[in-house]
Amino acid sequence: MTLDQLKIGMQRIIEVKVQEIIATKPENQRYLNYLDMRVVCSIVKSTCIRLFNEVPAKIEATCYLAEAVLDPDKKRKMELIKKAWGTLSGLAGIAAIIGAIGLALGWGAGIIATVTAFFAGSSLLGPLGLLIAGGGLSLIAGYFMFHDDASGLSDKAIRVLNNGVTKALEDYWKEHGSELIGKDL
Known about the structure:
By secondary structure, the chain is mostly helical. The chain is 80% helix and 0% strand.
């Protein structure tokens, strides 16, 4: 398999599962909820385990953030965002995933840079960074918490998952691509 086949295959897996779930819902509820997103993320993770024998950290973090978009409980939402932050390590990992997710959510470059700086600050500055990162977590959590349109949130969560997974796969391929050539999705 090539990187393009891997990315398209994973996007297709996500799309098929989303469509399966939506098809079972009443006409006026054709969107994903938090539990539905957990099911979609479990399919993504199980596919990673089958292909890579692991769930790459960036995919794990992306799943946490996609679930956080739809989680109705504000406390759990914040916990998921913190888990995502804790899963990502290093400036490159943080910048890549936050950038992809920011684009999926329609954030401008300034917001993406600010959120990335908040997340990266925690990795680079010790206790002061943790305080700064707390502000970044609040910014992201606030964005997720004050958008209540269920259908719109569902679309955003799906975009977060697709964009984040695509970027994570690109990064994973850089390190492990040679091991994946010849494998089937």
